[in-house]
């Protein structure tokens, strides 16, 4: 039976993250989930897998009184499937940031840019002067990206700050990443640096691959994911036969 995989995140103030971490792990273990969840004072991020019923119960429990009590009202989530278990164990980690960037100096609860639905992304890319920027690491970009997008050549996400210095603050930018979280952090950083025309692919590449028919897609290659499936293609189909060279 296929495993249901839920990738999720939300930037939200969690001053009680240290208290929430053990409670969240207990819920995951009770539901026999595997995967990794990161908690920080700035929010939650991670991917878990289990039966379809267990994932449904987990998502319902997240906003219950024993966990986040309604605070995850804007939770970004993507559901897909895996034929084999994508994770070996369950881990809940307390971190300074839910995506490592600059130690928490950038505040994604402020303006991060204008969200663009996957269905409207192609039209944005066709707009004259728009510069699409892939905010992922270079080995992810090597596996697949949007045609014509700029590859900043990042070894790690924090290197985006140096790349930003090469950009024109007047440029109209279209940022994207796997699920949306790095795009939001990068957008918040650019906004703080004075960039005013920043667009973000809502839900990231995964939502685009899910929502846009392959015949209309501007995506080339596969999308790297941080689990045992390695890569996904159109409609979030597993593509384990094309691991990135950097991981071989």
UniProtKB/TrEMBL annotation:
Record's catalysed reaction(s): uridine(34) in tRNA + AH2 + O2 = 5-hydroxyuridine(34) in tRNA + A + H2O
Occurrences of domain Rhodanese (ranges): 126-217
Keyword Metal-binding found: no
Domain of life: Bacteria
Keywords carried by this UniProt record: Oxidoreductase, tRNA processing
SUPFAM superfamilies for this protein: Rhodanese/Cell cycle control phosphatase (SSF52821)
E.C. number: 1.14.-.-
Record-linked InterPro entries: Rhodanese-like_dom, Rhodanese-like_dom_sf, TrhO, TRHO_N
Keyword Ribonucleoprotein: no
HAMAP family: TrhO
Family per record: Belongs to the TrhO family.
Function: Catalyzes oxygen-dependent 5-hydroxyuridine (ho5U) modification at position 34 in tRNAs.
Name listed for the protein in its UniProt record: tRNA uridine(34) hydroxylase
Organism: Methylobacterium cerastii
Lineage, highest ranks first: Bacteria, Pseudomonadati, Pseudomonadota, Alphaproteobacteria, Hyphomicrobiales
């Amino acid at each position: 039976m296929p495993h249901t995989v839920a990738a999720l995140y939300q930037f939200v103030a969690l001053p009680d993250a240290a208290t929430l971490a053990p409670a969240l792990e207990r819920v995951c273990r009770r539901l026999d989930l595997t995967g990794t969840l990161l908690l920080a004072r700035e929010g939650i991020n991670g991917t878990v897998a289990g039966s379809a019923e267990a994932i449904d119960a987990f998502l319902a429990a997240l906003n219950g009184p024993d966990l986040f009590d309604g605070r995850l009202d804007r939770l970004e989530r993507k559901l897909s499937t895996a034929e084999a278990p994508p994770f070996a164990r369950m881990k809940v980690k307390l971190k300074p940031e839910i995506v490592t960037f600059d130690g928490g100096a950038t505040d994604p609860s402020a303006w991060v840019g204008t969200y663009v639905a996957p269905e409207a992304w192609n039209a944005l890319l066709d707009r004259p002067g728009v510069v699409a920027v892939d905010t992922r690491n270079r080995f992810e970009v090597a596996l697949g990206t949007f045609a014509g997008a700029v590859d900043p050549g990042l070894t790690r996400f924090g290197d985006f700050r140096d790349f930003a210095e090469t950009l024109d603050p007047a440029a109209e930018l279209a940022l994207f990443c796997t699920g949306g979280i790095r795009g939001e952090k990068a957008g918040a950083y650019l906004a703080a640096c004075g960039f005013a025309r920043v667009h973000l692919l809502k839900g990231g590449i995964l939502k685009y691959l899910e929502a846009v028919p392959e015949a209309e897609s501007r995506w080339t290659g596969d999308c790297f994911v941080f689990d045992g499936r390695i890569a996904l293609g159109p409609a979030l189909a597993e593509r384990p036969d094309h691991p990135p060279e950097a991981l071989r």
